[in-house]
């Protein structure tokens, strides 16, 4: 098996520290957060602008990587489902995907809305949300 190496490009700074207190999805009451970028990637953020819709890829560092099936949304009335068919943070490779809106840029600090990740979550990439084909 080939190893994959990821290094954080930043970290989420959120008022939410405990995963059990986090919104299940960003559009379900997640607070505004700051993505604090590592200085080594400063040039990569040069063309980000308030109002941009972004995809944050995070590493759910508190996740249980041995979990392969869950009751979706923790609801025991729902059948146990393989994690690849859910958005559970507990999974073999706990990569989080968050569609956020960039509210502002302050140096290496990206202020965003719609991110349910907890404080200290490593950010492994930032990508723009693509518009329609004719807008690319």
Automatic annotation (TrEMBL):
It holds the Pfam family TrmO_N. Keywords: Methyltransferase, S-adenosyl-L-methionine, Transferase. InterPro entries: TrmO-like_N, UPF0066_cons_site, YaeB-like, YaeB-like_sf, YaeB_N_sf. Residues 1-30 are annotated as: Disordered. The keyword Kinase does not apply. GO terms for biological process: methylation. Residues 6-136 form the TsaA-like domain. The keyword Transferase applies. PROSITE patterns: TSAA_1, TSAA_2. GO terms for molecular function: methyltransferase activity. It comes from the Bacteria. Belongs to the tRNA methyltransferase O family. This is tRNA (N6-threonylcarbamoyladenosine(37)-N6)-methyltransferase TrmO. It comes from Cellulomonas terrae. The lineage of its organism: Bacteria, Bacillati, Actinomycetota, Actinomycetes, Micrococcales.
């Amino acid at each position: 098996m080939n190893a994959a190496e990821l290094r954080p490009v930043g970290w989420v700074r959120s008022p939410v520290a405990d995963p059990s207190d986090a919104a299940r999805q960003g559009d379900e009451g997640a607070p505004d957060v700051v993505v604090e970028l590592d200085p080594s990637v400063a040039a990569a953020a040069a063309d980000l602008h308030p109002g941009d819709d972004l995809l944050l890829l995070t590493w759910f560092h508190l996740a249980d990587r041995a979990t392969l099936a869950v009751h979706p949304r923790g609801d025991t009335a729902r059948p146990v489902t393989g994690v690849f068919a859910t958005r559970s943070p507990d999974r073999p490779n706990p990569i989080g995907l968050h569609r956020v809106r960039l509210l502002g840029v302050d140096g290496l600090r990206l202020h965003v809305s719609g991110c349910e990740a907890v404080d200290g979550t490593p950010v492994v990439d930032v990508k723009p949300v693509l518009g329609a084909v004719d807008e690319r």
